[in-house]
Design brief:
Blueprint (H helix, E strand, L loop, with lengths): L2 E9 L4 H9 L4 E6 L6 E7 L2 H12 L5 E8 L5
Antiparallel strand pairs: 1-3, 1-4, 2-3
């Protein structure tokens, strides 16, 4: 069973389009949605285990230029 997380992303002003495009090409990133509210983008990340999700967030997502801040919400159950 895959481990899944929602990554809420705040971008620098004017960078949402470029960040969305960059995130969509990353391995382990299932979906990328531009949203309204306190965050600019919500990405869904999945991998085999918690450590792998953490590596995607820290090694892949955090290195994308234009990202100011992220909050990662691990999925603990779904229906």
């Amino acid at each position: 069973m895959n481990t899944k997380a929602y990554v809420l992303i705040e971008t620098a002003v004017g960078e949402s389009g470029e960040v969305t495009t960059a995130l969509a090409s990353l391995p382990g990133v299932d979906t990328v949605d531009t949203v309204t509210g306190p965050y600019d983008i919500i990405a869904v990340v999945s991998a085999n285990d918690l450590n792998s999700v953490g590596e995607i967030v820290t090694r892949e997502i955090h290195t994308v230029s234009g990202i100011v801040r992220t909050v990662t919400c691990m999925v603990i159950g779904s229906s």
